[in-house]
Amino acid sequence: MEKHNPDLVFFQAGVDALLEDRLGRLALTRAGLQRRNNMVFDYVLHKSDAGIVVCMGGGYADPITKSVDAHADVYIDANLAIARHREKTEELKATVILCCEFDERTQSVVPFI
User: What sequence ranges are listed for the domain Histone deacetylase (predicted)?
Assistant: First the structure.
């Protein structure tokens, strides 16, 4: 990223890399995906001035709740990364766009369709 200095980063935060995913076959744990999320968020927020767009993708675990939990982790990790960044700086340099919304009816985070 330092070489190209982008204004905006798209993070396709797929969860088909989970061990339980029958299509991804990468065998990462939920903790491994959370580590990936934090590496991306912390790098963009702390070492660049780029904004970040976070999009959901993939997720075919059996049981499907494994994928749902990993998708939720992406947005929870984004929120925690923003909080960590704000603790270190007075302002948030980057723009974070999460491709989801809060559904008041179900009280849950859902992707834009």
Answer: 1-69
